[in-house]
Amino acid sequence: MYSKILNKLKFPIGFVGLIWVIYIFQVSSGIDLRTLGVYPRRIEGLPGILTSPLIHGSWEHLFYNSVSLLILSAILFWFYPKIALKSFIWIYLLSGLGIWIFAAPYTYHIGASGIVYGMISFVFWSGIFRRNIKSIVLALIILILYAGYFGGIMPGQQGISWEGHLLGAVAGILLAWIYKSDIEEDEIPVVDADDEEDKEREYFLPRDVFDVKKED
Predict the structure, then answer these.
(1) Single pTM value for the model
(2) Which of 4, 114, 151, 187 is deepest in the core (most CB within 10 A)?
(3) Which class for 34: exposed (0-12), middle (13-18), buried (19 or more C-beta within 10 A)?
């Protein structure tokens, strides 16, 4: 049981552990890593698509992102294991690319908030698109836990990369739509053989009777 839990959650725990190690290194060494963020529409800012989610500007920034990353990625990897890793990677890349193309220039954009918003959006909209009990319940949980986060996509907030939040959310919606048909094992409805027999008895005539007549 414990090995199964650890296996499901090793990626979320590992990723959060990585950003903590990087920030502790930054603080202890005195090296400013903010220049590894995304610098919009400059070629030298492109590597930031890969590195910016790993960099944080303060303990508070790191803590809040870590809690949300752990909760949301745990939900993603536990309930959507078939598509979890590729969804996470695409949210990671698309949110960073979106920042590079559309975000405010002349500043470095750092932090994993775009990924957080991407996963919020992905889990919520998966409930809308898939419309099975599990996905709807997860969408409601996300709505309750993160309703206040929707204000983070509003422009004009000082010191907050609202563009990263918005573009991460858009990436989450897109991926929820793309992967809506990748059904997990626990989403496949179980058909009872007795129910199938009962349904067959409901027909007054065999369902292929007209096909038989046509062939005659």
Answers:
(1) 0.85
(2) 114
(3) middle
